[in-house]
Design a protein that fits this description.
25 strands, six-stranded antiparallel β-sheet, five-stranded mixed β-sheet, 43 helices
Length: 1295
């Protein structure tokens, strides 16, 4: 049927777009639910059975009164709306998700209301509101068919045959069907235990009345549909034919303009709705108080956090409307962000395969009465937040960050709920207080009782008929209106608290947005550039906020928010962004601060205080206040409801055929389509207007009674965006790709959907690995000395790795046949382990797996380290600290990534194709060969950089280490008669002193994770005849990660040789595997500094390689000090070890040693080597002798104190029991002087000492006053930092 121009052109301005009736089609009779049959066909096909053998919905072992039968759209009006076509399949499925429900007169037949959402491919939504009730079946064929099905059920009550293999979807479906078949549209299925006898029983079937609207006016639509149902069941017919009311709500009721309220008329009572103004939070008509009452504050905040982090969210309840209330409630709290992924708050049982989607989603699943949660096996649970609404229980994913200031945030929300009589604990408890007035309002009204001004004001309002908040005490409102008003005010106050948190956390976000000069260039390079400076933003936040924010800024909703901000340069601001920016601008007027002065102190929402003061403001502003005065406060809703701005045209008689649609109690009549499919075409009372873009266009379909008020404001034409911008909005955000279609559910379409999931997973893997690689290489470039700044912090890196683990878990969960445990990846690994161990048992040795056996990390000193998937699994399984399968899977992934074996391990895991086919369905990602190869290649690219994601995360586990001491074998003294010992230190601690057995150069030891190894102390007790020991290096290997550290020495340990040291502190370097071992591991992070070797000492002393020039020495000192300064400018958790920067090969100690050796008269006198420490000792002896003679008393006091400090430090070092040698003593003096900021004060003393002239040439740097002053200035820059030394350096020295 054609539709008039008026009926289509103004559809965006109409209150409702469609009215539909869903129920039993008596012409076709009883039909099995085709979608349920399709689901069974798919399951049979995926299990490898013949699809034709699947049952077609016939299930004779179940009572026909509990079976699923097909519902149909019996009628809908109008036929179509041009810009919003009617989706018959989707509406039918969501009106009655479980199909038709039958019962008899012996069963309860309570009506029920629920709502739903249809998301179109462009991301726009339609809201459906459904009133379901039972209607008597009068069709003889239908009753006869039901009688026949009942006889067949009695004759074939044999139990169903069990299948040899059932998938996780099978078990999920069976668990949902426990306790009976489908209920219709939210109506509880009746017990129907007595069966059906057509001769004595009256048969009833569900019917649904549905209103489709563009805006979620849930309360208004619910009241309108309730009045329609009341008209059907009332003993007397309604005042007008039902067509009049349906026609009125479809064509003669417009959308209220923003900031205005509208009254239209139902069958018996008026219905009022209102829309927030442009500066208010967007419309959310689902009562938030109900959501908090159902779950409690704690559970809802956990659900809210999971929503912000875009996890998979599954709501579970018997009541469809509860699913919608929680889903819409939690998404309304996301302001200014929006959920960007799959959103199906009511998932029909026939669409359970949607739960297999390997993407973030928010879905709702109806439970059955008495269903056992333990039997509900979901396809994937590693990243799932499961919310059991009816039992007030929530199951959370592992290891996700909490909201900042959670305790204070929870308490503020609880205070708001208590004001409205709602218990913060949930479960439907009441607080016992007045639920209609907030506590502040009650106190104000109590104080004003008996006030003469208030009494005169009340008398004035009664004479004029004006209603003012708080003046008439609400006497003119019905209980339903009071409840509606209380729910609306509570929802606004709760949303204000949540909005206030984001306003505080992101008040400076604009400073970190990276804008583009023009739209086209930004769109063309969008995927390859950053549009938000994440590193700088995180560095500006308080440290307690970082765990949550670092995850949140990686979400799609945050990326879309930033995209909207950038595109606002070329088009009008998105509404949520406009409101949010306005709030930030207002906050800055009252709280001006520098971005660097952020505080983690919790600040309560100031708008709640403003709301509490509004009651007094109303009393003071009557007659003078404008509607805009309340635009940002919860009381704005009350003002709009108390004084309605506009009233729609009343329902009236239509030009209908007489005799059709006659009233019959209990039956919804067949409406006349002729009058409902087209709207009115002519009405002279419409105010003329041709303004384009108005939200409430005065046209032939919208009639206004202005109530002596001005017309609603017209919205100016929106600045049009370019076609490329609009295309980007749809493609980049991927709303159409993420939202499954409910209307077309053929096997071909479902297969195409799974292909899109596979493509999406591959694209996500490519983007994540590319981001990890680029960010890491950028940081390494900075560490190697290239310009710029590192764009990634350790926290961000850990967030990216956690995100990669989640992605891999989702990939392994896609298309899973049999769910075993919460982690699909770990389940696969366990199957692989079982298979390989069986082969190992059968063959008596490890199965041959060439690529999985690799040589040791180094060819010198250490035995081979076996490497395989099983070996790493056994390491993880031996860690008692990890309790769950999800934790084990993530630990295994981190370990494989750190060892640069992730791609190799997964390739080996997937090479067992028989196992993969057994575990996964045909459409699974892991069975798509081409995509799987690309996926492994993307993971292989991560081998180009070094990660310590296992070592730095699992800090408390016990790790086996292997240490090998390698002497210089070309000399005779390769062994010693003394008792050697070793102590290994890392960023997380040290192993303590461990004795090495005599004549043994290799040892293993277990120790709590030391982190990245930094230094090793090696020494002996000088016992025996061969006490001298010439050590080349010490090798230490982490037996789990395979990281091997080399600690060069190249010097003697023993009395009377070298500098006489019996122990040395060696600085380590991480070895790189040779290219012949793994060609994919050539690129790596910069090497750690190592301890000075004998070669470097020869260079300093003028032996091999020549001396450094004075310029080179000064440059070396500058680099060493700069490295220390850079160390302290990093976040505390990312600084690493300071010992390397002090004592390493290019550290401060070595640089100052070169400075002191320049021009040093170190020629051998009588075969004895002179060391720098000899000069220090002579200088100290001279100062002490001068002090005894009283010469130092004549010097200025600061200089005298400095002399005493140098003498005290040198004597303390000499008197220590440690035999660290002269070079070790000089190293210790420099470290202590740097720690206590004394080195720059000691240098002038040494320069002025007469000993200097005897032991240094005239050209020595130490005798050049200008150079010394420059060095003092450089060392003074270290005064700004608190230097902490490792215990291994200062052991035995108490200063």
């Amino acid at each position: 049927m054609s539709v008039s121009t008026a009926g289509t052109g103004a559809a965006p301005c109409r209150f409702a777009h469609y009215f539909a009736i869903c129920g039993l089609d008596t012409e076709t009779g009883l039909e099995a639910d085709e979608l349920a049959a399709l689901y069974q066909w798919l399951e049979a096909d995926l299990r490898g059975n013949e699809p034709d053998s699947a049952t077609k919905g016939e299930n004779f072992d179940q009572s026909p009164l509990r079976r699923t039968f097909k519902s149909k759209i019996l009628a809908h009006y109008p036929e179509t709306v041009e810009w919003n076509p009617f989706d018959q399949d989707a509406v039918n499925m969501l009106c009655m998700p479980r199909g038709l429900s039958f019962c008899t007169q012996a069963d309860r037949r309570e009506p029920a209301f629920h709502s739903f959402i249809i998301t179109r491919e462009d991301g726009s939504r339609s809201y459906g509101f459904v009133q379901t009730f039972y209607e008597e079946v009068t069709s003889g064929p239908v009753r006869a068919a039901m009688q026949t099905l009942h006889h067949m059920h009695q004759a074939e009550r044999a139990p169903p045959s069990s299948s040899s293999s059932s998938s996780s979807m099978d078990s999920l479906a069976s668990s949902l069907e426990d306790g009976g078949g489908g209920g219709g549209g939210g109506v509880d299925p009746p017990p129907s235990g007595g069966g059906y006898d057509a001769s004595r029983d009256t048969l009833y079937v569900t019917k649904a009345l549905c209103l489709l609207a563009p805006v979620p006016f849930m309360t208004a639509c619910r009241r309108f549909l309730a009045q329609l149902l009341r008209a059907v069941t009332a003993p007397e017919p309604p005042p007008l034919p039902l067509e009049s009311y349906v026609h009125n709500v479809l064509y003669e009721v417009p959308l209220p303009a923003p900031g205005r309220s509208l009254r239209f008329h139902g069958v018996y009572e008026p219905v009022v709705c209102q829309r927030p103004g442009p500066g208010e939070l967007p419309l959310a008509d689902y009562p938030l108080g109900d959501a908090f009452a159902l779950l409690g504050v704690e559970n809802l905040l956990q659900l809210y956090t999971c929503t912000l982090l875009e996890m998979q969210l599954l709501l579970y309840s018997q009541d469809y409307q509860r699913l919608m209330t929680v889903a819409e409630g939690v998404t309304s709290l996301l302001f200014p962000f929006q959920w960007q992924h799959v959103y199906v708050p009511i998932l029909p049982p026939s669409l359970l395969h949607f739960l297999d989607a390997p993407v973030p989603y928010l879905m709702g699943l109806q439970s059955r009465e008495g269903a056992d949660r333990s039997k509900l096996e979901l396809p994937q649970e590693a990243n799932l937040c499961f919310v059991d609404i009816d039992n007030h229980r929530i199951e959370l994913p592992e290891d996700f960050p909490q909201l900042p200031n959670m305790a204070e945030f929870r308490e503020e929300i609880s205070d708001v709920l208590r004001q409205y009589g709602i218990s913060p604990n949930g479960g439907g408890e009441e607080d016992g207080r007045n639920g209609n007035l907030a506590r502040e309002e009650q106190e104000v009204m109590e104080r004003l009782q008996g006030n003469a001004t208030l009494e005169r004001l009340q008398a004035l309002t009664r004479r004029t008929g004006v209603t003012v908040a708080g003046v008439d005490g609400g006497a003119s409102r019905t209980p339903e209106e009071e409840e509606e008003l209380s729910n609306a005010k509570l929802s606004v106050q709760l949303r204000e608290v949540f909005a206030g948190r984001f306003t505080a956390m992101f008040s400076d976000y604009e400073a970190f947005v990276i804008h583009s000069p023009d739209l086209e260039s930004w769109l063309s390079s969008r995927e390859h550039m950053h549009n938000f400076d994440k590193a700088s933003f995180l560095s500006d936040q308080p440290e307690p906020y970082l765990p949550f924010l670092s995850h949140f800024i990686e979400t799609q909703m945050f990326a879309t928010f930033i995209d909207n901000k950038i595109m606002s340069q070329w088009e009008a601001k998105e509404p949520l962004l406009r409101v949010f920016d306005a709030r930030i601008d207002k906050a800055r007027l009252y709280n001006v601060r520098a971005p660097s002065l952020r505080s983690s102190n919790y600040q309560r929402c100031t708008r709640l205080k403003e709301a509490g003061e509004c009651t007094v403001c109303v009393l003071n502003c009557v007659g003078g206040a404008t509607r805009g005065d309340f635009a940002c406060r919860p009381q704005a809703i009350e003002q709009r409801l108390l004084k309605v701005d506009h009233t729609a045209l009343h329902p009236h008689l239509l030009d209908m055929k007489i005799g059709e649609g006659r009233y019959q109690r209990g039956f919804f009549p067949k409406l006349q389509a002729a009058v409902l499919n087209t709207g009115p075409t002519n009405n002279r009372s419409v105010p003329p207007s041709t303004t384009p873009g108005c939200l409430a266009t005065p046209n032939s379909m919208a009639f206004w009674e202005w109530d002596n008020a001005s017309p609603p404001p017209f919205k100016p034409p929106k600045k049009s965006a370019s076609a490329s911008c609009l295309r980007y909005m749809q493609e980049a955000r991927g709303l159409g790709k993420r939202q499954p279609k409910l209307s077309d559910l053929s096997p071909a379409v479902i297969a195409q959907t799974n292909c899109k999931f596979v493509e999406g997973l591959l694209k996500e893997c490519r983007m994540k690995t590319k981001r990890m690689l680029v960010e890491k290489l950028g940081r390494e470039a900075v560490e190697l000395g290239h310009g710029g700044e590192a764009s990634i912090t350790g926290l961000e890196e850990n967030t990216l790795i956690a995100s990669l683990c989640d992605l891999l878990e989702r990939i392994w969960s896609h298309g899973l046949q049999n769910k075993q445990g919460k982690s699909a990846l770990w389940s696969h690994l366990l199957h692989y382990q079982g298979r390989e161990e069986r082969l190992e048992t059968q063959q008596g040795e490890l199965p041959a797996s060439g690529p999985e056996r690799r040589k040791s990390e180094t060819s010198v000193g250490l035995p081979y380290l076996p490497v395989s998937v099983l070996q790493d699994m056994r390491h993880i399984q031996s860690m008692s600290e990890i309790k769950t399968d999800v934790g084990r899977a993530r630990a295994w992934l981190r370990l494989s990534l750190e060892k640069k074996l992730l791609s190799q391990h997964l390739k080996m895991l997937l090479s067992r194709q028989g196992l993969t086919k057994k575990l996964y369905k045909r459409y699974a990602f892991l069975r798509c060969e081409e995509e799987k190869e690309q996926f492994l290649f993307h993971l292989l690219s991560l081998n180009a950089v070094d990660y310590f994601c296992f070592t730095c995360v699992f800090t408390t586990i016990m790790i086996p280490y292997r240490a090998v001491i390698i002497p210089i074998k070309k000399l005779s003294n390769t062994m010693t008669t003394s008792n050697p010992w070793v102590c290994v230190s890392g960023e997380l601690g040290d192993s303590g002193v461990m004795q090495i057995p005599k004549n043994v150069l290799e040892m293993t030891f277990d120790c709590q994770n030391l982190g990245k190894l930094t230094s090793t102390q090696l020494g002996h007790d000088n016992a025996g005849l061969l006490a001298k020991w010439l050590v080349d290096c010490v090798m230490v290997r982490n037996e789990i990660t395979g990281h091997t550290y080399k600690f060069p020495c190249g010097r003697w340990l023993g009395r009377g040789v070298d500098d006489g040291s019996l122990e040395r502190v060696l600085i380590g370097e991480l070895l790189v595997p040779g290219a012949e071992e793994d060609s994919g591991r050539g690129s790596r992070t910069p090497e750690l500094q190592r301890s000075p070797s004998q070669t470097r000492r020869s260079s300093i002393m003028g032996g091999r390689g020549g001396k450094l020039t004075s310029g080179q020495i000064q440059e070396t000192i500058g680099e060493a000090v700069n490295n220390i300064i850079k160390h302290f400018h990093k976040p505390e958790k990312e600084r690493g070890s300071l010992t390397i920067l002090l004592c390493g090969e290019n550290g401060l100690v070595g640089a100052l040693e070169q400075f002191f050796h320049h021009g040093f008269k170190s020629a051998r006198l009588f075969q004895k080597t002179v060391f720098v420490w000899d000069f220090i000792e002579k200088a100290v002896a001279y100062m002490e002798s001068c002090d005894q003679m009283g010469d130092l008393q004549e010097t200025p006091e600061p200089l005298g104190l400095t002399c005493h400090s140098l003498c005290r430090y040198a004597n303390a070092i000499n008197s220590t029991r440690r035999s660290i040698g002269k070079d070790g003593k000089f190293q210790l003096l420099v470290c202590l002087g740097a720690r206590d900021h004394l080195m720059d004060q000691w240098l002038p003393l040494l320069v002025e000492c007469p000993v200097l002239q005897r032991m240094y040439d005239d050209s020595a740097l130490l005798r050049d006053r200008t150079t010394v002053n420059t060095l003092i200035g450089v060392l003074e820059t270290l005064h700004h930092f608190h230097i902490t030394l490792e215990a291994s350096l200062v052991k035995g020295v108490d200063l």
